[in-house]
């Protein structure tokens, strides 16, 4: 998940968070010492879309990389600076919002060869455990659902800092990455190249550049 000040644009109201459906299980702590300042960050957070990016990258024709992102999603984040194992995240993404910068390619991605957005309009990540691994680094394990398949993934997550911005929002930045084999989620479409190899790599790197805003409790 990524740094909040990477883009210089006006802050907008954060989108409504999606509440957790059931209690999140917690991971065992590692005993690694935590920065006491992290305790002040404990609470509920929401992703600020204009200053965040939920993206991916994949090798194309074996010689270049295609990058894309999803613009429409809901989030529910809880960070516990004293007991990281209690931290949790849920992200629901509307796959029809995919944007790779090429309309024809986007249309192909949301069609039946890939996401099949008419049948499976959403994909979801829901954490199952969080472990502090040292300094400002964490490991978050969770279930990723694409189409009708749910499989575990492990995110390497880094806390990038926090700040009170000029608009009065308390922000925290996170960056997380993982690499998946898309065929494990039923995304098996491909074309073979004459010289050998595949038009689209089966390995996809997921990237979460997150500027999170502390949620204000409803009165």
From TrEMBL:
Tell me the segments the record calls region Disordered: 1-30
Which residue ranges traverse the bilayer? none
Domain named Lipid/polyisoprenoid-binding YceI-like: which ranges? 44-213
Q: Specify residue ranges for compositional bias: Polar residues.
A: 1-15
Q: Which family does it belong to?
A: Belongs to the UPF0312 family.
Which PANTHER family does the entry mention?
A: PROTEIN YCEI
Its name, as the record gives it, is YceI family protein
Species in which this protein is naturally found: Streptomyces mooreae
């Amino acid at each position: 998940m990524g740094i909040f000040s990477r883009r210089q644009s006006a802050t907008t109201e954060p989108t409504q968070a999606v509440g957790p459906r059931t209690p999140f299980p917690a991971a065992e702590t590692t005993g690694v010492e935590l920065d006491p300042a992290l305790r002040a960050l404990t609470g509920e957070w929401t992703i600020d879309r204009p200053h965040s990016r939920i993206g991916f990258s994949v090798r194309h024709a074996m010689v270049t990389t295609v990058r894309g992102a999803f613009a429409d999603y809901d989030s529910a984040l809880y960070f516990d600076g004293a007991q990281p194992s209690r931290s949790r995240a849920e992200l629901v993404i509307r796959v029809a919002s995919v944007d790779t910068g090429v309309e024809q390619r986007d249309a192909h991605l949301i069609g039946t060869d890939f996401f099949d957005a008419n049948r499976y309009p959403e994909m979801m990540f829901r954490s199952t455990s969080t472990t502090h691994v040292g300094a400002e680094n964490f490991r978050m394990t969770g279930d990723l659902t694409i189409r009708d398949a749910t499989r575990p993934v492990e995110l390497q997550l880094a806390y990038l800092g926090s700040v009170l911005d000029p608009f009065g929002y308390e922000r925290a930045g996170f960056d997380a990455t993982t690499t998946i084999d898309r065929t494990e989620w039923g995304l098996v479409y491909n074309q073979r190249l004459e010289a050998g190899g595949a038009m689209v790599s089966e390995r996809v790197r997921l990237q979460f550049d997150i500027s999170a805003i502390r949620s204000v409790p409803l009165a």
